[in-house]
Amino acid sequence: MDPLDRDLLNRISVTARDLRTGRLVRLSHTLDQDQFTEDLRDLGLDLADLGEDVLSRVAELDAMDGP
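The structure corresponding to this sequence follows.
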């Protein structure tokens, strides 16, 4: 497996584990509105960055396959 793919899959696994084990739980127990907003924004940015990287890698793989 390509090292870039391995790294990307590792990031996906880490993010999924983080969501399952604590990040959403911490978000649901945050009482301070400002902290909740900041945490939710950070989660959105992390997911957006990961999504962009996945789509970029898919585009690279598609380009290697050719038309």
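The radius of gyration is 16 Å.
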